[in-house]
Amino acid sequence: MEYTRVEIASLIISKLQQEKLQLKKQFAESKSQIGFFYVDNVLPEKLAKQIFEKFPSLENTTLRKSLKEYKHIAYQMDKYNPLLEESIYAFQEESVVKLIQEICGLTSIFTDKSLYAGGLSLMKKDNFLNPHLDNSHDKERKHWRVLNLLYYVTPNWEGSFGGNIELWPDGLQKDPITITSKFNRLVVMATHQNSWHSVNKVLTDNIRCCVSNYYYSEKPLLKTDTFHVTSFKGRPTQKLRNLVLKLDNTLRMGIRKLFKKGVRENPHQYKNK
């Protein structure tokens, strides 16, 4: 069966409605630091496995490798199996957006058809993502990024494999909250000035696959939020790397003060023809 984004969205809605009260509680209890919730068995198992099986090979993705990150991404969705595009945009269907907005106690949330910094993420052994704050805005720097949606589809993924998202609500000197990138799990987290998060190193030969979306709003989540580029730090043991990344953050922020949209267009966006 070939699923459309509307059909997939209907399945997502059904699961979220079943868990809505618990998810609202989970987000509300964490909202004072980094609001988040996660829900398992989001889609029928067969469909979730089909999405995983349609992920592109690493050779057909874009490699991002630096002191900040080591991962593979894919965002020009017309190059890949149509099920992947339908799966991504299912999370942008109005019914899904409104329900997640309700769960998180937010208003006036909207999506980004260009998938700026979103799309597909693939992480193989030794891949990682250092602690960071997401870019505060969309590509036009008009709207505030407020929610990060991560849907994981690698079967039989275990916490010991690494490649799990880490939230740092008490700063990098305290232990993070680690959420396993479990198969068929959706994680939704708030994005603001204090939402430091990371992905720990993958320790297995399996590939962790994730469908990624961002939601935006006219207003930031926190009154104290200010514009910032994607900003990285070293882990507590990475003293030298932390100094280098702080300098990199400062330089890139300086450039954005001079050039509002940067000196070049960020290629990480879906240019749908």
Question: Outline of this structure?
Answer:
The chain is an alpha+beta fold.
Q: In terms of topology, how is this protein built?
A:
Blueprint: H1 5-30, E1 36-39, H2 45-53, E2 62-65, E3 69-74, H3 82-90, H4 94-103, E4 109-110, E5 119-123, E6 128-133, E7 144-152, E8 165-167, E9 177-179, E10 185-190, E11 197-199, E12 208-217, E13 231-232, H5 239-258
Antiparallel strand pairs: 1-10, 2-3, 3-5, 3-6, 4-12, 5-12, 6-11, 6-13, 7-10, 7-12, 8-9, 8-11
Helix pairs in contact: 1-3, 1-4
Question: Any overview of this molecule?
Answer:
By secondary structure, the protein is of the alpha+beta class. It has a single domain, classed as Jelly Rolls (Sandwich), CATH 2.60.120.620. It is 27% helix and 23% strand. The chain is built from 5 helices and 13 strands. Strands 1, 2, 3, 4, 5, 6, 7, 8, 9, 10, 11, 12 and 13 form a 13-stranded antiparallel sheet that branches. The longest helix is centred in the N-terminal third of the chain and has 26 residues. The chain is globular. It starts with a helix and ends in a 15-residue tail after the last helix. 37% of the residues are buried. The mean pLDDT is 95.
